[in-house]
Specification:
9 helices; globular; 9 strands; Rossmann fold; seven-stranded parallel beta sheet
Length: 245
């Protein structure tokens, strides 16, 4: 049997590394893609040393949308699974007055990931098989004053994945949305996070594997987030506007 291959976009993040390691431990060939080849190579060498699996690296910039087709064409082959772990939390206060920073957040979390996954969706559809995984966020479930630029981009990404899933439902292509909630990563190290609703990168990686094996459509890495966000979505707007969330 041919080896299964997973392509992970945004390959230097903590979540990407943990996800790559989880797949490699299950005998998958791993392809890490990102903007920093030296960092990618360090991650690839470490994962390969730990698992004995092949890990290749590939230059990829989610904001360079004109390069997407050439990037996909240059891969050793069409992967079985593509996972977008690309994301930029950014600075909400800065984004409120700096259009360039707001644009960077929006493009990094929505436009770029949606366009590259669209490209692979078409190739998977033509093949009649494949899986697409988008790491979105609970921040997209309802806009909040503390992070609405990031949250709006993730809301768009979640809606994109939902529509793509609906479109490809009969094509043999599986589309899964992952909402990790809080995760202890370098991106959130400055935050005080409640342990009960904060996952580790390793939890996210295992959740992705489990979700794919069970053909899940949407998963909250820690199920408590499903209840938390249900409550937040149900708060009447007049009340919600008075809250500091």
């Amino acid at each position: 049997m041919a080896e299964k291959a997973v392509l992970i976009l945004g390959g230097t993040s903590d979540i990407a590394r943990a996800t790559a390691l989880a797949f490699a431990k299950r005998d998958w060939t791993v392809r890490l893609a990102g903007r920093a080849p030296p960092e990618l190579q360090r991650e690839a060498d470490d994962i390969s040393a730990r698992t004995g699996r092949t890990v290749t690296i590939h230059q990829f910039d989610v904001l360079a949308t004109g390069s997407f087709a050439a990037f996909a064409d240059a891969l050793p082959g069409l992967p079985d699974v593509v996972i977008s772990v690309v994301g930029l939390l950014g600075d909400q206060a800065r984004a409120e007055t700096d259009p360039d920073h707001a644009s960077e957040i929006m493009r990094s979390n929505y436009e770029g990931p949606a366009l590259i996954l669209s490209l692979f969706a078409e190739r998977f559809r033509a093949r009649g098989a494949g899986a697409i995984v988008g790491i979105s966020s609970v921040a997209g479930d309802r806009g909040r004053g503390s992070n609405y630029v990031y949250g709006s981009a993730k809301a768009g990404f979640t809606a994109f994945l939902s529509g793509l899933r609906n479109r490809l439902a009969a094509s043999g292509v599986h589309v899964m949305t992952v909402k990790p909630g809080f995760v202890r990563t370098r991106m959130t190290e400055h935050m005080k996070l409640p342990p009960i609703i904060t996952a580790t990168p390793e939890e996210v990686g295992e959740a992705v594997l489990a979700g794919l094996s069970r053909h899940k459509d949407v998963i909250y890495v820690r199920p408590i987030w499903l209840l938390v966000m249900l409550i937040i979505r149900m708060i009447p707007e007049p009340v919600f506007k008075r809250l500091k969330l």
